[in-house]
Amino acid sequence: MNTTIEQTTAKKVSLKKMLKTKTVLLNTFAELIASTIFSSLYFIFISRYLNEKFHTDYIMLSFSVGLAFFAAVYIPFHTYRIHIIPFITLITSLRRKNPYILLHKIPAQIVGAFLGVVIFNEINKITTQVDIENFQLIHLTDSSLIIFINTATASLLCYGFYMIRVLFKSKQLVGTIYLSLFFSVLFAATSFLTNTSSLNPFGYLFYDLLGNQTIKEQSFSFIFINHIIAPIVGVLLIFYYIKPKVLSFKK
User: Fold this and answer.
1) Rounded distance, CA 207 to CA 223, Å?
2) Which pLDDT tens digit goes with each residue over 157-170?
3) 125 falls in which pLDDT band (50, 70, 90)?
4) Which of 26, 124, 197, 222 has its CB surrounded by the most CB atoms within 10 Å?
5) Is the pTM of this model over 0.85?
6) Neighbouring C-beta atoms of residue 185, cutoff 10 Å
7) Which CATH number covers residue 193?
């Protein structure tokens, strides 16, 4: 009798581990597909804005980028399990008992962004033939201001994501739509400034490495602080500030 119970328990544990592994693999693959779709569409829409043949205004561009985010999230799962942006993965991980459980998403985001930029570069060669660097027209000379804007963008994105998750259930279409609209607003407010990469950090990185190489003109310390450290610190501050607010709101 005891042997049978032990065998049943072992089978349940084994099945649970197998299902968990399948879920991780499925989520990773979905994150890869979503990141590829997003990065390719993100730069395609910007390139069409820069090309006069397409007659795209800035409002339509911002809406289109939000639509790209919506498509990337909705196509694989249409839930908040798709993050695309590593800062969203960070703030979601902080809500878990085991913060490391979602870190498998970041490598998928990196590979997806790389594939998306490769796809865009090939399309750009035969269609628009533009330089995305020409889109960020306002060159700020104050490094502290640049870091602040990039950090604030990442923080606001995560704040919006967190609040939308509270207000809407994870599988509701309306929540994804509002998140995409919020993404459009952030893009419209910050995308024309140089070195603002928080809305597509890996995409901008690979576009630079595979194209213009303007990254070599900047100091390593500035790159590290502006694109990595400062946004992460901003997200941590936002999380630990809004967590009690959100919990009290739910009550």
Assistant:
1) 15
2) 998 988 888 787 65
3) very high
4) 197
5) yes
6) 13
7) 1.20.1080.10
Residue 108 token pair: 């998928």
- Encode pLDDT of 13-68 as tens digits: 554 555 566 677 888 898 999 999 999 999 999 999 999 888 889 999 999 999 99
| Reduced 3-state DSSP string for the chain | CHHHHHHHHHHHHHHHHHHHHHHHHHHHHHHHHHHHHHHHHHHHHHHHHHCHHHCCCHHHHHHHHHHHHHHHHHCCCCCCCCCCCHHHHHHHHHCCCCHHHHCCHHHHHHHHHHHHHHHHHHHHHHCCCCCHHHHCCECCCCHHHHHHHHHHHHHHHHHHHHHHHHHCCCCCHHHHHHHHHHHHHHHHHHCCECCCCCCCHHHHHHHHHHHHCHHHHCCHHHHHHHHHHHHHHHHHHHHHHHHHHHHHHHC
Per DSSP, what are the bridge partners of residue 193?
138
* pLDDT, tens only, 68-96: 999 998 877 656 678 899 999 998 888 77
Q: Which residue has the tokens 């490769």?
A: 118
Tell me the pLDDT tens digit for each residue of 204-240: 999 988 876 666 677 888 888 999 999 999 999 888 8
* Number of domains observed in the structure of the chain: 1
> Within a 10 A sphere around the Cβ of 237, how many other Cβ atoms?
12
pLDDT in tens, 19-32: 566 677 888 898 99
Tokens of 205: 């990185």
**46 CA to centre of own chain:** 17
